[in-house]
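Bench log. Compound arrived from synthesis this morning; before running ITC I wanted a structural hypothesis for how pyridoxal-5'-phosphate sits in the protein. Inputs:
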Amino acid sequence: MNIRLFKPSVGKEELKNINDAFERSWIGLGPNVNEFEKQWANFVGVKEAIGLNSATAALHIALKSFNFPKGKKVLVPSLTFASTATAILYCDLQPVFVDSDPNTLGMDLNDMKRKFDKDCVAVMPVHYAGHPIPMDELMPWARENGLKVIEDCAHTTGSLYKGKALGTWGDFGCYSFEEKKLMTTGDGGMIVSNNLELMKDIKAYRWVGIDKDNWKTAQAYTEVNKDAMHWFYEINLLGYKYNMNDLAAAIGLAQLKKLPKMNAKRSEIIKKYLDGIKNLSGIKPLVPYEVDKYVYQMFGIRAEKRDELMLYLKSKGIATGCHYTPLTLQPLFMPYAKDCNYIEKEANSFITLPLHADLTNEEVEYVIENLKSFN
Ligand SMILES: Cc1ncc(COP(=O)(O)O)c(C=O)c1O
């Protein structure tokens, strides 16, 4: 057997939508992106969503839009993918790395409060693996201290935490549709907010400073009226080429329909894993999975004999990973590293196991059997 770690679940529904885009012969920023934005905003329950080419882009322009003075500080977990912290460097700001909570592995809010100083301007909580950061505790503290809040939702599709969707607690929520995520557009991302004032420049940031609907503009090119300036646009800010395109959105629209089913399948698999490992010594679940409440992009374990177990699983054709090497151990970020001792040590026990919506029962059983036989 050869079992992949992650795999996008795509098929004829996505192909049909791509085919429709081909027939319309409009594959750039256009009506599919508009429709996907509308449906995503509806799905999450938020006032506005804007489609981008990645969550990296979303995190970058979310932070950029506040125009913080150069050199100010942003609180960010050490345990995250590079993009959460590269967004800070892109904006000429300084990351202040926060250690993890030993139970959830999310940002430790006590360490965050300890590391806060008057130069901090924002905080970027990451709902690691899909497990929520206690936003009901973080938000009042952030507001008291004048901090902007950008939620990294790359590992969630907006599960409800205390009745409110992840991604809608802070100023901005940033989602990823990269191919390993809960749903995919190949590569893609979405930025959302309930604050329309904050969203007003985001379209210009995503498309080199131009805030114009490409698709509507093209329709107006041949409208018979007295307007000879239908082509005109004004550039008022330094934007990026970060827009989503209609091919990605075509895939996204099909994936969004399948998402509840795919998420339910993931939860079912996680339950099987949890049951399978519950009596194994030296192995614990990565985070306190609560599959009836939240969706999880990753299933992982903490293993005492991490490397031996990884090699064993590899020999059985089972792909594994490690998410992540804490950023404070990465050469790029080392100059900013300070006291993330817990996660720097604990991450040596992490193993990510195969999890995707097309994983069969037989494959899940096979992984569990091999975890048992190693034990
Ligand atoms: C926590 C986290 N943040 C941000 C990103 C970046 O997402 P994207 O690949 O869509 O830019 C990822 C992707 O792996 C991620 O895991």
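What the model suggests: The first strand starts at residue 48 and ends at 52. The chain has a mean pLDDT of 97.
ITC booked for Thursday regardless.
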